[in-house]
Write a structure and sequence with these properties.
It is built from 12 helices and 15 strands. The protein is α/β, with parallel strands linked by helices. Helix 4 (127-139) packs across helix 6. The two termini are 16 Å apart.
Length: 385
């Protein structure tokens, strides 16, 4: 077995391929769908999916039923995690009651039980509400984690407001619906001093706003997802597996995200693993639910299409999958939390093989290098090929 060391890729070409030990990945943005939507995913299937992808820690978003907006509701989720999770699972609490944007949750009661506060799936529309949430979160030393989306600018859109939408007659989502709310929140974070983390950024304006805010000393971090780093609107097909929120945007946006990843503006790569039933994803771009799965494919895709061609180094990839997200969210990495990979194994992504209940991925049929043979937590094997 080869131990990975920064800025080197082990030579696996002589004789039998060695297995490379990588530190346990951490995904701060997943949807495990329990309680409330177990037909899409369960804590059990989602955490097994994560383990197969080399993840030893994930943070599930609170758009559940019931929403974890009180200790009573959070306990329903935590009980399932305690019973069924095979990896470390750190739940979020909502920012507002039932994620409705009208009343803040009892943050003081929930703070010790959750990783952070987020209304993911919905932007907090009220500036005053967000400011008060940041003020209280700062006092509790907790992050506000924001899905940034201005509902006034959505107008029924479901893919990027770009060339593909125009040519194919689809309703578009403008980039300002994302970056406009980021701009608002960065000003609030600067004013309050709160720790602020931005979910799944997708456009060039978001990258530049965050880059400048960091220069100005704002306590901000952000994430993007593998699909935004590897695809753009020119890759769209008339299938639900290409529909996610935010949508795949322009080539210029895609290039800006890569630049932001390389220059350190983007702190984490998170999958936004969002499983749905086959029926919910079978209604084309217009009618399908938003969301794709990603835990089992993230590392092979990023390694194959960004590291192997030399676009980024392996060390940078591990920084965004392991070190920076863990540091920002205070998630420890145990010495015996790791995964073992054959980095020379070539496979074709087949959703039918996924351990996740969700099968929708735009990467079906892509050739990738990297097969996870084993994932270990606290010295105990939780996944073995």
């Amino acid at each position: 077995m080869t131990q990975y060391t920064p800025n080197t890729t082990p030579n696996l070409t002589q004789g039998e391929p060695e297995l490379v030990r990588l530190p346990g990945f951490c995904d701060v943005h997943v949807h495990l769908r329990e309680p409330g939507f177990s037909y899409k995913e369960t804590i059990r299937t989602g955490s097994l999916s994560a383990a197969r992808g080399g993840y030893t820690a994930v943070c599930p978003m609170p758009n559940l039923n019931p929403v974890p907006d009180s200790l009573e509701h959070l306990k329903e989720e935590q009980d399932i995690i305690d019973r069924d999770a095979v990896i470390h699972v750190y739940p979020y609490a909502a920012i507002t009651v039932n994620e409705m944007g009208e009343e803040l949750v009892p943050m003081e009661e929930l703070a010790d039980q959750v990783i952070a506060f987020s209304d993911d799936g919905r932007g907090v529309q009220s500036e005053d509400m967000m400011k008060e949430a940041m003020r209280r979160a700062k006092a509790l030393n907790k992050l506000i984690v924001a899905h940034c989306e201005d509902n006034r600018l959505l107008t029924g859109g479901y893919i990027h407001e770009g060339e593909y939408a125009r040519v194919h007659g689809h309703k578009g989502i403008c980039s300002k619906s994302e970056w406009g709310q980021i701009e608002r929140d960065l000003n609030l974070a600067k004013e309050t001093g709160a720790g602020y983390h931005i979910c799944h950024i997708s456009c060039k304006e978001s990258v530049e706003l965050i880059r400048q805010a960091k220069r100005d000393g704002v306590n901000v971090t952000c994430e993007t997802a593998p699909h935004y780093l590897l695809l753009d609107e020119t890759d769209l097909q008339e299938e639900g597996r290409f529909k996610m929120n935010p949508p795949l945007r322009s080539k210029e946006d895609h290039e800006a995200l890569l630049e932001g990843l390389i220059d350190g503006t983007i702190d984490a790569i998170a999958t936004d693993h969002a499983p749905h039933s086959a029926e919910e994803k079978a209604k084309g771009l217009a009618g399908s639910a938003f969301g794709i799965v990603g835990l089992e494919t993230a590392f092979p895709l990023l390694y194959t299409y960004l590291v192997r061609p030399g676009i980024i180094t392996m060390d940078l990839l591990l920084d965004r999958l392991v070190r920076r997200p863990r540091a920002r969210f205070g998630i420890p990495l145990g010495e015996e939390d790791y995964s073992l990979w054959d980095l020379e194994s070539e496979t074709v992504i087949d959703p039918n093989d996924f351990l996740s209940k969700g099968k929708a991925t735009p990467f079906a049929g892509w050739k990738v290098y990297g097969t996870c043979y084993e994932t270990v937590i606290n010295g105990k094997t939780v996944y073995k090929r």
